[in-house]
Amino acid sequence: MLTLAVAQSGYPDNGDVLLQVESYVARAADKGAQLVVFPENLMHPHELTPTQVADLAEPLDGPFAQGMCDIAREHGVWIAFTMNESHPGGAAGRPPYNTAVLSDADGKICGSYRKCHLYDAHGVYESERLSPGGELCKPVRTPFCTVGMGICYDLRFPELARTLALGGCDLLLFPAAWHDGPNKLVHWKTLLRARAIENECFVVGACHAGSRYVNESFVFDPLGNELVGGHDELLVCDIDMHAVHAARDAMPVFSHRRPELYR
């Protein structure tokens, strides 16, 4: 059994992200959470120029990621978070990556993923300030399950989730800053549920709490049941990983696949 918390946070007025994160993690740990998932756009406010985004980006061993890992170690919980990652090797002039990171309870980074699908739609152009990642997330084995990660717009590409499920993932995390607008909440919730049903795994959607976003987060089980969801700052639920095996035994879609027809 895994107790999971979704921290639906926004950018703090005082700019102290690590202090805000520590508050969420402390509350989640008090509720018995073993894993806390934070949304996209955690490190900086959205309203930044491409130059500001690049100037504020940090490497995975920089102070922001280290501060997040310190919080994980202090409270003995796993943390999934996002950051603007500078290009390794100091690649001059290259926009940073939008990177999801998974820290274990000892404060060690166990996995990271650079957002592959950049959101260039509805007048928003992520590609003007971010570089796309070049590979999907590698499944991360944890004491409670195998975790895969995507970020926001990645959710609209079912190939990503299916690849992670085929790689052994039974829990998929989608930190997001899902823009609000006509039908956007319906899309967000429906796609999260669909990824859970079609891959017979647990799916978490952690949405940024800013006013420009849909401001709702969800956890779905392998049958598409909503375990927890809504506007609450901190959502906590228990996940029984046996449900993944039960769903896949009852509906063995993976063994029924015809990959030779899909090429």
Strand arrangement in the largest pleated sheet: 5-4-3-2-1-14
Number of separate strands: 14
Alpha-carbon Rg, integer: 17 Å
Q: Helix-strand pattern, N to C?
A: EHEHHEEEEEEEHEHEEEEHHH
Q: Give me the number of helical elements.
A: 8
Number of separate structural domains: 1
Tell me the major beta sheet: 6 strands, mixed
The CATH topology label is: Nitrilase/N-carbamoyl-D-aminoacid amidohydrolase
Q: Find the CATH superfamily.
A: Carbon-nitrogen hydrolase
The amount of beta strand, in percent, is 25-35%
Mean pLDDT: 95
Gross morphology is: globular
**CATH hierarchy, class:** Alpha Beta
Residue share in helices?
A: 25-40%
Distance between the termini: 38 Å
The CATH level-2 architecture is identified as: 4-Layer Sandwich
